[in-house]
Amino acid sequence: HAVVAEIGNYRVPDSRDDTPEWLLGDINWRGTTIPVVSLESLCGESAPANLVYSRLLIINSVRPGSSVPFYAIVTAGLPRPLPFDNELMSGAEPCTHEALQCRLAIDGEIAVIPDLDYLQAQLEQQVADAA
Questions:
Q1: Which of 27, 71, 87, 118 has the fewest CB atoms inside 10 Å of its own CB, making it the most exposed?
Q2: Confidence of residue 124 (pLDDT cuts 50, 70, 90)
Q3: Continuous segment of H or E residues that includes residue 128
C-alpha cells in the first residue's frame, strides 16, 4: 500500500522525444508531470493493443530523494491489493527479465511482480539523459 499512490483510468500520455519505446510519455497527475511506463515493452513484449480497459497504477518512488518521485505503470485490467504471504510466494516462478521479480498464478490469472528499484533506476537514467 505504501508504494501505490493511486489507481486511475488510462489516458493517453503526451509523447516525449528520443525516449525508449517503454517510456510512453507523460501525464499530468495532481498538478505534477509524471512518466508513464509499459512493463510489457520494457521486457521486450508487445503492449496491449486495446487500452480501453487498462488502468494507470501511480507509484510512489522507492528511492528517497529521487529525481522521479512518482510514475505510472499501465496495467491490463483493474489491479487490486492482495494479501501477500509465504503460501502465495510458494508458487512464484522466476522471470528472465531484470524488470520483473517473479510471476505468480493468482485465482487462475498470471500476475507479474515488477522490480520497482530497477524500474526507478531506468526512469532516473532517462531524466539524467534528457538533462
A1: 87
A2: very high
A3: helix 116-130
User: DSSP for 54-103?
Assistant: EEEEEEE-SSTT-S--EEEEEEES--------HHHHTT-EE-SSTTEEEE
Q: Going by DSSP bridges, is the β-strand pair 54-60/93-94 parallel, antiparallel, or unpaired?
A: unpaired
Q: 81: which residues sit within 8 A by CB, 6+ positions away?
A: 1, 4
Distance CA 31, CA 55 (A): 19
101: its cell numbers: 521479480
Q: How many Cβ atoms from other residues are within 10 Å of residue 113's Cβ? A: 14
Helix (H, G, I), strand (E, B) or coil at 118: helix
Q: Tell me, what's the pLDDT at 85?
A: 63
Residue found by looking up cell 493511486 in the block: 6
